[in-house]
């Protein structure tokens, strides 16, 4: 009889990880309400033995594998929350919670990290330093769970951090990496245009906020198109326009809501000022009034070049060069950025789409699904990264 290697142990774990993922998929919980999920994660981790477990916030779990041998501290992060979506899939592990669904794959992230924790806990004898597993609540809803965990000290002493997202629009069998700017800062704005309501047949007696707000919407389009360096990524989208109640009443006010996505710090600071100037000018020109509010979203995800290259090299060794692809930056947001402010790290994508089997729906869609072979791939990659940083042949 031979001693099982980490590889065969990981292979044996594959079914368990899938089972965990399906359990979590059946029992999704919304951001900041992940009580049962956190309990499940903590209870599962407790069965591995040798992990120091804590609850930095009511619905997050931190697991520390402290080897007692000198070495770096490496952190891995999984987000654990679900979305307010009614699932429309028909597989046999659909959500049992009405109107709540793991439609972003965080069930997969959680299951994979449990698998990584189990594989490496079993082989703690060959590791140095410390491995930290962060099961983070509330990635989907501002202010996000990551900053709360940073404030609770989970990054203290961490030398590098790695996180992932399973990605349904990247075909399975691929790992996507991106050095530098990867995901944008997703900020939100709220504009109220206040006029004076009245009878729709007597517009001259009113200050109609609707045409004023419509002009605001159009004028805001010139910020990105006319004032931002064409090479610099930026998005400004007005996504809500609410006004009025019926056909013969001019309303008092119109409300606009939308999002601005940027990478550059100076640009991010400038755009709300430009927006307010435009809103002020247009509303004043028409004798209306305004309110302008801005809510900072997550900071942009900027991956460290060295850590990204290291994870990419490990992935190439594991899976072959052709399976590791370089991603384009996206204007989506991720609060993984909060950890990157504290230590160098990288956030990679694991391809989870399967066009041949119809697994192509985008994230946050009621028919979102993942190819579960992606779980095995990210499990192997996390374990190999841990060995590369803390293992016997560490580089
Ligand atoms: Ni997500």
Description of the molecule:
By secondary structure, the chain is α/β, with parallel strands linked by helices. Helix content is about 35%, strand content about 25%. The chain has 2 domains: about 5-185 and about 300-390, Aminopeptidase; about 185-295, Alpha-Beta Plaits (2-Layer Sandwich). The chain is built from 9 helices and 16 strands. The chain has an 8-stranded mixed β-sheet with strand order 1-2-4-3-5-16-6-15, with helices on both faces. Strands 10-12-8-13 form a 4-stranded antiparallel β-sheet, with helices on one face. It has a two-stranded antiparallel ribbon with strand order 7-14. Strand 1 and strand 2 form a beta hairpin. Nickel (II) ion (NI) binds near residues 104, 106 and 139.
Spell out the blueprint of helices and strands.
Layout lengths: L5 H21 L8 H14 L3 E3 L6 E6 L6 E7 L26 H17 L7 E7 L8 H7 L8 E12 L3 E3 L2 E4 L1 E10 L3 E2 L9 H19 L6 E10 L5 E2 L2 E10 L2 H21 L3 E7 L5 E3 L1 H15 L4 E3 L10 H4 L4 E9 L19 H18 L5
Parallel strand pairs: 3-4, 3-5, 5-16, 6-15
Antiparallel strand pairs: 1-2, 2-4, 6-16, 7-14, 8-12, 8-13, 9-11, 10-12
Bound molecules: nickel (II) ion.
Nickel (II) ion (NI) binds next to loops.
Core attributes:
single chain, 395 residues, alpha/beta, Alpha-Beta Plaits, eight-stranded mixed beta sheet, four-stranded antiparallel beta sheet, 16 strands, binds nickel (II) ion
